Amino acid sequence: MSFADRPPHKAAANWQVQGLMLIATFLVATSFPVVAAITDSVDSSVLTFLRFALATVLFAPLVAWRYGLGRPGLYDLMRYGVLSFLLVTFFWCMFASLRLTSPLNTAAIFSLSPVITAGIAAVLLRDRIGLSARIALPIGAAGAIWVVFRGDLAAMMAVRIGASDLLFFGGTIAFAVYSTLVKVLHRGEPLARMTFWILATGTVWLFLLSVPDLSRVAWTEIPATTFAGIAYLSAFTTIVTFFLFQWGTTQIGPTRVTSYTFLNPVLVLFIGLAFGDALPPVAIWPGIGLAISATIVLQLNGVHKGLKEKPISGAPAPQGRA
């Protein structure tokens, strides 16, 4: 039985979960320079639609061969539709807010997502969060924000919260609800199949959202590098990361999975170093230390203090290969 087939009540080894979550987080971090490189070529809503649509097409044959796509009933479509609606809401709020606010503001707000997820998980999953986790969550958020602003206190103090920032904060809440509901709405089907239907229903939402912009796209003028970037985003930072994060949520719970968000600004820095960027200033390193330390504490907290969320009871075992 591979890790992908393992039902939630048969938890994977902790090292396996943590390793896969690190891989997924690294892939997410690589998406930032890729999006930055291609975002000027295609409207953001169209870009996201193409990303979801291609991911759905690429993932369909694998899921069909391994598990069968199945014929989801109305209730199942509602489950998948709710989850994908939350994801699309997050992406729409992000792109809409970036028209009026700065990337620094959105990055700082998104650093709060593990804290928000912990609060939502406490309500929906009755997740018990110990003292060390309650301390580590705000410290991790502070460390990530410190890295985002490159240790510049003046820049942090100069931030002004506007309507666009509140819009993205709403999108961040939608993302946190999605992260928690993955566990609540999983009904024992193979997670690869669940991921496929979330992508498919998300593609429908995004098509409806991008219809006004699709007719204005000059497809023949889009450079080949943009299509290559969309293909990378679809295969690695959509299919792989969505699936791994959903699987991780069923294994260690949404709070510990989203705590890896603290590492995103850190990993973006390290990826930049690999491509020849200069070493970050000394002022950034305390924030890097706080973000990494908080993530480690949150993972150890779940392992040693018995705070891992309980798997959903009564869910049927996943089906085998079709």
From TrEMBL:
Presence of keyword Membrane: yes
GO cellular component, as recorded: membrane
Location(s), subcellular: Membrane
Signal peptide: none
Name of the featured protein: Putative DMT superfamily transporter inner membrane protein
Transmembrane segment boundaries: 20-39, 45-65, 77-98, 104-124, 131-149, 161-182, 194-212, 224-245, 257-276, 282-300
Membrane topology field: Multi-pass membrane protein
Domain EamA: 20-148, 165-298
Source organism superkingdom: Bacteria
Keyword field: Membrane, Transmembrane, Transmembrane helix
SUPFAM superfamilies to which the protein is assigned, alphabetical: Multidrug resistance efflux transporter EmrE
Organism (species): Ruegeria meonggei
UniProt family annotation: Belongs to the EamA transporter family.
